[in-house]
């Protein structure tokens, strides 16, 4: 299982504040939509064993599970509509029980720390031996280590990681890596990571 946790700092938690006519205006939701699409889709297909978790304003987490997604299309408008639906269901997320939004999409009332706890300390029902990897422009080169079996990658959006996130991740991450010498958009970083894993660390094509 590959998992990507993307921190959306500026996305509104109120679905009424999200206009499908101005997706970037909703805290750069366009970028998060591309992270979802880049995480779960192939050209004319969908990946297996991938989940993308969008942390919204450190309050909610919307999870896309590639194995059970139905009727999702890769365009930003379609993905944004699903995220807005998820936030619209936020009153159904009680405690840490998820709100079921549509097949393969769930919303939990969890910020970054609770989401990482869920993914790393059990309860997510997936990763058997998860490795938490922070994707950061100043990390160690990706190629210096073998790809982990059950990686959980954490990325920030168009902002840098906030100080509290930096502290939390410093305590929790197993590795902090960079995918190359240039600062990339988060969705492009996900594509590079997929390619690294798809090729077993650039060993098999
Ligand atoms: C556009 S960057 C964030 C903005 C940048 N930190 C800033 O404040 O100028 C989006 C995210 O993609 C990931 N990222 C971008 N370039 C990367 C690289 N070369 N290696 C690893 N991760 C990268 C990081 O998680 C980063 O926080």
From TrEMBL:
Catalytic activity: pseudouridine(54) in tRNA + S-adenosyl-L-methionine = N(1)-methylpseudouridine(54) in tRNA + S-adenosyl-L-homocysteine + H(+)
GO CC, one annotated term: cytoplasm
Transmembrane segments: none
Record-level GO BP terms: tRNA methylation
Positions with a binding annotation for S-adenosyl-L-methionine: 135
InterPro entries on file: Alpha/beta_knot_MTases (IPR029028), TrmY (IPR007158), tRNA_m1G_MTases_N (IPR029026)
An example molecular function term from Gene Ontology annotations: tRNA methyltransferase activity
EC number: 2.1.1.257
Family to which the UniProt record says this protein belongs: Belongs to the methyltransferase superfamily. TrmY family.
Alphabetical list of PANTHER family matching this protein: TRNA (PSEUDOURIDINE(54)-N(1))-METHYLTRANSFERASE
Subunit structure: Homodimer.
Protein's name in the database: tRNA (pseudouridine(54)-N(1))-methyltransferase
Organism, as annotated: Halorubrum saccharovorum
């Amino acid at each position: 299982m590959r998992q990507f946790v993307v921190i959306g700092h500026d996305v509104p938690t109120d679905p009424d504040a999200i206009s499908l006519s101005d997706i970037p205006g909703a805290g750069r939701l366009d970028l998060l939509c591309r992270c979802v699409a880049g995480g779960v889709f192939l050209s004319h297909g969908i990946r297996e064993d991938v989940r993308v978790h969008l942390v919204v304003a450190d309050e909610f987490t919307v999870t896309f599970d590639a194995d059970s997604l139905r009727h999702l299309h890769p365009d930003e408008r379609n993905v944004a509509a699903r995220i807005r639906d998820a936030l619209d269901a936020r009153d159904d997320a009680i405690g840490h029980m998820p709100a079921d939004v549509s097949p393969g999409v769930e919303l939990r009332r969890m910020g970054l720390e609770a989401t990482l706890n869920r993914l790393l300390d059990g309860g997510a029902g997936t990763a058997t031996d998860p490795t938490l990897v922070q994707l950061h422009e100043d990390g160690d080169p990706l190629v210096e280590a073998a790809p982990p079996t059950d990686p959980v990658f954490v990325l920030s959006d168009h902002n840098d990681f906030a100080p509290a996130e930096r502290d939390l991740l410093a305590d929790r991450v197993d590795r902090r890596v960079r995918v190359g010498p240039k600062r990339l958009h988060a969705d492009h970083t996900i594509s590079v990571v997929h390619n690294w894993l798809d090729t077993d660390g650039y060993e098999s094509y």
